[in-house]
């Protein structure tokens, strides 16, 4: 968003505040007034229905606003780090790509207030975009593990991350109000300083305006055994504003905006500044930095009616912008300046209905995305070459449409059956990209349609829950699949692929849990069959000294896993929480020597998380232990990724973090953490550099 656009938005917000200061206030409904009696009931919205957590036949993990403010994670992906089935890969300190049940990139989906965050430039591997959300704006994070294409369409294969942003407080007050928050975070692990300032003003039951600014300055990582890792720091700025207006006692309108900028985020692993770890190789680039800018603006209207066929309605129009610029100087001193921009317009509507024992959720999604890219090469002698495209094709369009229906039926006492169906349509065109054979300019257009569905049954009785489900999900080829050009893994360069079709996934899940409020435990087993899987395969050519690869619907395979958890209330304020993940994935790809069956890239090793917490009055403390086995299930691509993955796999590690906090005065809370107590030299599997060694994190949260 330009400075002119930001000024215009601010002017509108100020004008709206002036108008609504004298607007009538509507009574706060029972549904909006959260009392102490229902404060412990967790309501989730990531399944496109507002329902209690334990009534959903999905594997859902919830991170509350209180957890985010206590733990102060660097990024949204890092907030997911200890959840079952999740591996957070970080190519760089400013990046973060969660692998959910073995999938990442464009096979996982993120939504913000019900709006799709993914765009058509996402790669099939790890990418940085999920780290570009300001976690201080969030009221809740929901991880819906497993497929949800029946609800969201393409890409919701491994899991869906649903983010809910904080409201302005319109229904938390009965009169005019003004309050705010100041959060500070410092860390010795990277010499970082983070500041979050937020302010709320409004009139209870009538209108509310919330705005905030976040400043992040990250220095170089201080890694155990290696000291300061040069060229790993970066800066980040974020701004958000949200206006909520009560149109009537039953209808609310929300106008919201958020922007985030990242400056000079280094991809250190490919440069001469990288530090070898357990046998990894040092890169040859002299420089490789990225700038990112993203924005989201949306208008949402939602409310209730007396109609049986539409008890509630939520309509959202949104616009998202994304800009990425990379400045890279190769070892031969060739300077590559490449970039892309994405402008994504979307309209979605979700309605609910009740017919006896049947609850229905239905709606539609429409999106129209425009993508442009550019690349300029400057040789050491000053010769300038303008390429046909940047990292993806230019003058591109990617349109999606979908109709979905979800039904929940109470078949008998304790027995609920859920069914979902979605029809999806994708249409795309690319005005110009480099032909993979001739290198000349060419264009492309195609379209696909698909049906996704799911059937799940949940039985609950006296604390016992048993559910089983089958889901068919899919992913349509996107602009990056079709037209990507550039370096992928350490020794590979990718070219365009023109004959792709959607890939499909069949997932079977079975879960059991027991909860008597003192003790809770459970087990989830799942398997996903991969059909027409779009895999990166060598073309047999060498380009720019690298192995040339392209995408093909050439592979099939299976990912299976088991997730377990155990929780116990130990009394006297103590509680124990643990989970464990076992995952195995195999992919079969044809080669000139016959079918190649190998592990799926970057499969999560056996992982266990164990947390002991204590809380009393305004004081809390926890000890968190993560045990990760050696990641030695390597694909042929992993073996070639010599700058990130050590020979033989990424070493396992034991990571102990200790945190605590207290409220020293009314509205003033302090937190202190000692992370990586064992001073372990480690990195998450597939990451580009090591994490900090033993370090302190201090935080202060002031609410007024």
TrEMBL record:
Pfam families per UniProt: Plug, TonB_dep_Rec_b-barrel
GO biological process terms held by the UniProt record: siderophore transmembrane transport
Domain TonB-dependent receptor-like beta-barrel residue range list: 288-677
GO molecular function: siderophore uptake transmembrane transporter activity
Xref: InterPro entries: Beta-barrel_TonB (IPR000531), Beta-barrel_TonB_sf (IPR036942), Plug_dom (IPR012910), Plug_dom_sf (IPR037066), TonB-dep_rcpt-like (IPR039426), TonB_rcpt_CS (IPR010917)
Signal peptide: 1-27
Ranges annotated as spanning the membrane: none
Topology in membrane: Multi-pass membrane protein
Coarse class of the protein's main subcellular location: membrane
Domain (TonB-dependent receptor plug): residue spans on this chain: 54-160
Location in or out of the cell: Cell outer membrane
UniProt superkingdom: Bacteria
Family assignment from sequence similarity: Belongs to the TonB-dependent receptor family.
PANTHER family per UniProt: HEMOGLOBIN AND HEMOGLOBIN-HAPTOGLOBIN-BINDING PROTEIN 1-RELATED, TONB-DEPENDENT OUTER MEMBRANE RECEPTOR
Protein's name in the database: TonB-dependent receptor
Species this protein is from: Alterisphingorhabdus coralli
């Amino acid at each position: 968003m330009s400075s002119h656009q930001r000024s215009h938005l601010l002017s509108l917000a100020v004008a709206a505040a002036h108008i609504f200061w004298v607007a009538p206030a509507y009574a706060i409904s029972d549904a909006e007034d959260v009392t102490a009696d229902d404060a412990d009931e967790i309501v989730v919205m990531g399944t496109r229905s507002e329902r209690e957590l334990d009534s959903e036949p999905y594997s859902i993990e919830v991170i509350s606003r209180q957890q985010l403010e206590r733990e102060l994670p660097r990024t949204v992906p890092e907030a997911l780090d200890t959840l079952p089935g999740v591996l957070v890969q970080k190519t760089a300190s400013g990046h973060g790509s969660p692998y959910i049940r073995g999938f990442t990139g464009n096979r996982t989906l993120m939504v913000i207030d019900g709006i799709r965050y993914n765009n058509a430039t996402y790669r099939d591997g790890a990418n940085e975009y999920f780290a570009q959300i300001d976690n201080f704006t969030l009221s809740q994070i929901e991880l819906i593990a497993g497929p949800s294409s029946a609800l969201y369409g393409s890409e919701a294969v491994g899991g869906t991350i649903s983010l809910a942003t904080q409201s302005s407080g319109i229904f938390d007050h009965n009169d005019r109000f003004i309050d705010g928050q100041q959060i500070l975070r410092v860390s010795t692990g990277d010499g970082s300083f983070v500041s979050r300032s937020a302010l709320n003003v409004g009139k209870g039951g009538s209108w509310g305006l919330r705005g905030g600014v976040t400043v992040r300055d990250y220095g170089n990582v201080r890694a155990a055994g290696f000291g300061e890792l040069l060229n790993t720091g970066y800066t980040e700025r974020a701004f958000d504003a949200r206006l909520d207006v009560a149109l009537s006692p039953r209808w609310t309108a929300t106008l919201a905006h958020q922007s985030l900028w990242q400056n000079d985020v280094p991809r250190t692993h490919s440069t001469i500044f990288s530090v070898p770890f357990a046998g990894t190789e040092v890169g040859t680039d002299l420089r490789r930095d990225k700038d990112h800018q993203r924005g989201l603006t949306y208008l949402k209207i939602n409310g209730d009616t007396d109609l049986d066929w539409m008890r509630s309605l939520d309509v959202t129009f949104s616009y998202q912008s994304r800009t990425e610029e990379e400045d890279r100087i190769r070892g031969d001193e060739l300077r590559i300046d490449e970039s892309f921009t994405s402008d994504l317009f979307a309209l979605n509507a979700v309605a609910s209905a009740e017919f006896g024992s049947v609850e229905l959720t239905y709606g539609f999604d429409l999106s129209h995305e425009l993508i442009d890219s550019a690349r300029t090469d400057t040789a050491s002698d000053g010769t300038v070459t303008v390429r046909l495209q940047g990292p993806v094709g230019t003058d591109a369009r990617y349109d999606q449409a979908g109709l979905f229906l979800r039904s929940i039926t109470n078949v008998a006492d304790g027995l609920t059956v859920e069914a979902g169906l979605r029809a999806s349509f994708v249409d795309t065109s690319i005005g110009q990209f480099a032909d993979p054979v001739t290198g000349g300019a060419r264009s492309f257009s195609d379209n696909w349609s698909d049906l996704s569905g799911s059937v799940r049954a949940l039985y609950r009785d006296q604390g016992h829950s048993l559910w089983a489900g089958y889901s068919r999900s899919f992913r349509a080829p996107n602009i990056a699949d079709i037209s990507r050009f550039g370096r992928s893994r350490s020794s590979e360069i990718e070219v365009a692929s023109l004959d792709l079709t959607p890939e499909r996934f069949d997932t079977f899940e079975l879960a059991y849990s027991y909860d008597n409020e003192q003790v809770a435990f459970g087990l989830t087993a799942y398997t996903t069959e991969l059909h027409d899987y779009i895999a990166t395969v060598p073309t047999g050519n060498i380009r720019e000294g690298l192995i040339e690869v392209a995408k093909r619907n050439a592979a099939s395979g299976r990912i299976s896993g088991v997730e377990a958890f155990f929780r116990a209330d130990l009394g006297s304020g103590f509680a124990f929480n643990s989970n464990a993940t076992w995952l195995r994935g195999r992919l079969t790809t044809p080669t000139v020597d016959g079918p190649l069956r190998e592990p799926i890239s970057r499969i999560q090793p056996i992982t266990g998380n164990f947390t002991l917490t204590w809380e009393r009055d305004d004081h809390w403390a926890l000890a968190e232990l993560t045990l990760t086995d050696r990641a030695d299930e390597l694909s042929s691509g992993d073996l070639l990724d010599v700058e990130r993955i050590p020979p033989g796999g990424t070493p396992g590690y034991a990571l102990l973090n200790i945190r605590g906090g207290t409220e020293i005065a009314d509205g003033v809370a302090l937190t202190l953490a000692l992370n990586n107590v064992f001073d372990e030299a480690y990195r998450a599997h597939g990451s580009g550099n090591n994490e900090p060694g033993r370090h302190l994190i201090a935080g202060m949260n002031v609410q007024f």
